[in-house]
Specification:
This protein has 296 residues and is α+β, with helices and mostly antiparallel strands. 30% of the residues lie in helices and 22% in strands. The protein folds into 2 domains: 1-105, Phosphorylase Kinase, domain 1 (2-Layer Sandwich); 107-239, 2-Layer Sandwich (D-amino Acid Aminotransferase, Chain A, domain 1). It contains 7 helices and 15 strands. The strands form 4 sheets. Strands 7, 8, 11, 12, 13, 14 and 15 form a 7-stranded antiparallel β-sheet that branches. Strand 4 (41-42) and strand 5 form a beta hairpin.
Length: 296
């Protein structure tokens, strides 16, 4: 695998990209070019070095799920993973290969659509205090990482920086409208159930995940990345046991390393050692290969 991660990208002839924690978004006029870099963030800070091929894994996994669900859930993708680049972008094919996606200019909804099938993270913290998750009352006696009786829809606000904030369905309805909130809730639960069942056959538990939707004209589309280790909590099924935190296919090695430092979790973030980079990369690769049945 290549040793050098792609951390930033400029494309001559195009305006500078809009930059997120991971993605560069280029305006192509009538559509957008999404490029997933190899940047990695933890505690809301972007690390100075990245995880080689991470962006490729995020993009290829999103293509995989879009391929499986596109017949019943429209998405923002233009073309497929194998579609040729427009002629104007072909000089940059080496940088874009595997990590780029051309998409429609949808208008994103101002909420994150989170579905939880297991009790973990902020949901577990809230449950211990109040017996609820985002205002949804749950049975008593659940343990950390317990599977919920039924998956629940727990929307969140979008934060430009820092953490998203969990909100109730009623609050989400006030933000995007009751009809739209009901539609994205139902679509999110259907998509989660589909992906959960697919992943179980591959030995992976999808504990929770985050979807985004947007309008292209009056058509509601699934947008952004979907069901990746950055947007989901993936657990190896053969190691699952409720009552504790779980091994996961994400950046846990990065978080665990950073917790050993005296760093105050504000920028600038420290560089990651080579062994943390390698172990984190291996987790992303394993998640991709187990879910898709393909070799990266």
């Amino acid at each position: 695998m290549p040793d050098e991660p792609l951390l930033t990208l400029q494309i001559p002839g195009l305006p500078p990209p809009r930059r997120g924690k991971v993605r560069e978004v280029f305006d192509l006029g009538d559509c957008l070019l999404f490029v997933a870099t190899d940047r990695i963030s933890a505690f809301d800070c972007v690390m100075p070095n990245g995880i080689p091929r991470k962006g490729e894994i995020l993009t290829r996994l999103s293509h995989y799920w879009f391929d499986l669900t596109g017949a019943w859930l429209p998405n923002h993708r233009i073309g497929t993973e194998d579609s040729p680049l427009p002629e104007s972008l072909r000089p940059f094919a080496q940088q874009l290969r595997g990590r780029s996606m051309i998409v429609k200019k949808a208008k994103p909804l101002a909420i994150e659509c989170v579905v939880r099938g297991y009790l973990a993270g902020s949901g577990w913290k809230e449950y211990r205090t109040s017996g609820t998750v985002c205002g949804v009352r749950l049975p008593t006696g659940l343990l950390e990482s317990s599977e919920l009786p039924e998956p629940i829809f727990t929307p969140a606000t979008k934060a430009e920086s820092g953490h998203d904030e969990n909100i109730s369905f009623e609050q989400a309805s006030a933000i995007v409208g009751a009809d739209t909130a009901a539609r994205v809730r139902d679509l999110s639960l259907k998509l989660y159930a589909f992906a959960r069942d697919q992943a179980r056959q591959r030995g992976i538990i999808i504990a929770d995940t985050k979807f985004e939707f947007g309008y292209f004209g009056d058509q509601l589309l699934l947008i952004d990345e979907v069901l990746t280790p950055d947007s989901s909590r993936f657990w190896p099924a053969d190691q699952y046991a409720p009552g504790r935190s779980q091994a996961s296919y994400d950046k846990q090695f990065v978080r665990d390393y950073l917790e050993t430092l005296s760093w105050n979790k504000t920028p600038p973030a420290p560089a990651l050692p080579d062994d943390v980079v390698r172990r984190t990369q291996a987790k992303y690769v394993e998640a991709y290969e187990r879910l898709t049945g393909r070799t990266l």
